[in-house]
Structure formats: C-alpha cells, structure tokens
Amino acid sequence: MNIKIVPVILSGGTGSRLWPVSRQSYPKQFWPLLNEHSLIQDTAIRGQKMGLQSPIVICNAEHRFIVAEQLRDVGISDARIVLEPVGRNSAPAIAAAAFLVAETDPDAILWIMAADAAITDEEQLGLSLEAAVRAAKGGRIVTFGMQPTRAETGYGYIERGAEIPGMPGVHTVSRFIEKPSAERAADFLSAGTYLWNSGMFVARASVLLSETKTFEPDIFLNVGEAVAKRTSDMDFERLDPESFSNSPEISVDYAIAERTALAAVVAGNFGWSDIGSWDSLWDLSSKDTDGNAVFGDVFLDRTRNCYVRSDGGIVATVTGVENLIVIVTQDAVMVTHRDCAQDVKKIVTRLAAEGRKEAAEHNRNYRPWGFYESLTHGNRFHVKRIMVKPQQKLSLQKHFHRAEHWVVVAGTALVTRGTEQLLIRENESIYLPLGALHRLENPGKIPLVLIEVQSGPYLGEDDIVRIEDDYQRE
C-alpha cells in the first residue's frame, strides 16, 4: 500500500469480565493471554508486519510506562503515546488521533482498533484492510464486520446492505444493533446478512474530523483545543486536561458511525475476537483431548471442557469437574460456569461497591523502575518485595509516618540516605529512619531484588514526598 496508513490503538479499557487477571491497575491488554506477547504487543506488531506507519497509542497516564516498555520489548520505540487526562470513551480519543495526524497529513488514513482484540488469520486481515483502505480513500468511514459463527449475545451487530458500486467487498450499512437477546442473536445468525461489530474503523483523518464537527461539534471544539494545547512529558504527549475534560463522553458508534451517511462495512473472516470473557479465551486456546485449556501450575483429574489458569499456587480439579472456569491469582480465586462467563463483571461491580481494592488493583504494582508486591502486613508493619530494573532508580523521597528496613536478596543496591551513598550487596541490609531523605538505585546489570519492612502508625502509599524523580511524577 503506497498511501500513509497510521494504526491508532485505543488502550483505555479495563476488561472487567476477565477479572481477576484483568484489573484497572493492569488490564487485559498488557497480559500474554494467548502467546508470549501481550495483546497490545500483538496489536502493534500487526501494523509493523504490514509496513504501516508507527502507531499512535491512546492510553491513560497511569499506564504510560507499561505501554512504552511493552512496545520497546517488541522493537517499537517510535510510537506516539498520547495520554488522556480523563476517560471520555472512544469518540474523543479517536478525534484526538485524527487531529494529531491531520497536522501533517489530513488525507492520511487511520486504522483504529482496540488494544485487546485477537486475530488469528493475518493474511485475511490484510486483504480486508486493502478493501477498507480503497473505500476510505473514496471518503468512506469503514468498519469491519465479522462473519458470525454462533448466536453471540456479547457483541453488537451490523446489518449489511448492498455492495457499493466500484468497491468490491465493501457494503453499505443498513443499521447498527446493540447486543441482542439470545433469541435475536439466533435470528441474526440464520439470516446471513448480520455481522459482528468488531469496533475497528478505517477512514481518512480529514473525513473523521469533518463528521465529528458535523455531529459532535463539542467534541471537535474541545478535543481540537486539547490537542493544540498538549504538552510533552518525556516521550509522552499529554492532552490539555481542562479542554479534554469538557468533551462529551460518547462512543464513536453513537457519535458518528450510526449517524453518518458515509458508513460502510467490509465483511471479514480473519479469526477476530475481542476476548471479552473467559469463555472466549477458552474458545481461542489450545486444548487437551478432554477439551481443557490449562495455564500455569494445574493438575486435572477426570475434568472436561474447562479453562483453568493459575498465576498463583497449584490448582487441582478432581473427578466430575466440567464446563468450569477456574482462575487463581496471588490474591484472588474466581470460579464460574462457562455459560455464565459474562457475569464476572457483576462480581467486580459488587467488590468495588464494598470498597475492596481487589476489584481494581493487583497485589503486584508496576512502576517505571520495576515493581513491588505485598508479602504480608499487619498492625504497624508491611512487608514488600521490590524489584528494580538495571540502571533504574526510585525517586529521592522521604516519609512522615514510617521507617523502612531494606534487605538485598539479589543484585546490588546503591542507597542514598541523607548525605551518605552506600553500596548494599546481597544478604546485606540498611535501616532508613522515619523522615530520612533516601533513594534506591540499581547500578548493576541484573535486576535488584530486596525485601522492604515498613513500620509505623500509617503505611499508605500516599505517605511519599518526592524531592527528585527521573520519571517526572508528582
């Protein structure tokens, strides 16, 4: 393809139906659920394989370092990572990408997609994309409709109209349909003219902006201003918070796709799934002779048609277990029947309503320098495991309510304590009294791992006063 095509990857979802693996702090797009790559890595690699432009990734500020690191890990170091100050659904995010691209090339074509979808036949995807690009060059806003293979109630549908003259494989859109009941989904499947709505779009930047201005002028005005007033933050582009927050919160389907006269659809058959539930992951996963998909430390005994995943301790299923989903993480266990996989989201809602941090946060918390995870805690103490990547360091900081004791178990730590700088090696330790100015750094070539014991009357993460920070965090 000789026209400029820019992949736009939307990475704002939380994937609550894949709880407890997918949570707000580390959602499903960052997990390797199907192969050695995470979903966002697979999404970015597709564009790279096709020789397209470097991607634009729209995400929230909390995930920016995760996105950057995961893309670097697969050799993509030139992505434009754009930070939303608040979530406003897909229409404002897409408008921001269109404004950015239009600054240098209004006729460039955007290929808009979610960060968390799976595609199994990339050759067929390429053919569908070629048809969509031809239509987009002609001024159409094109979506991909997937050929249904079952009466799915978890997807929206598109009713396909007539083929557009001069655009083979491209059809008009008769209507978009919300997620249907089981009975309606069965009718759609038998009719043969209904397609699953993939949520992917292909269109020129200028066309998207023109239709946004027509149908959602407040989005056009406020997002345009947010892009014009954006600031640079290391390798990230921050949209202006006030302007972007003033934008309406609406999906691109409601804002444009269902209202424009330019909508078109390309029917695809390239093994797409939005991986919206554990049951859909079971469908996509390799299985044993009894129909079980297994990940992690799992033992099965006379078990059939189950999805069993352990990211924590050993999981065993015994005699007569069938059609279940069993998920184990370090701090949560979830069990449901495969037919009820869509209901996992309801549990997350209940956990959040009761103020349970497990609804949104993992036990392991990722930071730009590495991660930390809680090992145990009680009255006036908290024990953590901390990993610092080579050549990285934490902020220069102090605490008002806690003292800390660090024990190095792997690697070497360079510790700033007040005016001192001390090299702490494996099996050595250091004490940091309450109020002491301190910093932890890994000067070596292997990960630094230490055990941190906090003690004091208040041990919250907000008891950190940063004096200096390489990552420009507050």
TrEMBL record:
One of its GO terms (molecular function) is GTP binding. It is an enzyme of class 2 (transferase). Residues 7-290 form the Nucleotidyl transferase domain. The keyword Transferase applies. Keywords: GTP-binding, Nucleotide-binding, Nucleotidyltransferase, Transferase. Pfam families: ManC_GMP_beta-helix, MannoseP_isomer, NTP_transferase. GO terms for biological process: GDP-mannose biosynthetic process; polysaccharide biosynthetic process. Residues 303-351 form the MannoseP isomerase/GMP-like beta-helix domain. This is mannose-1-phosphate guanylyltransferase. The gene is xanB.
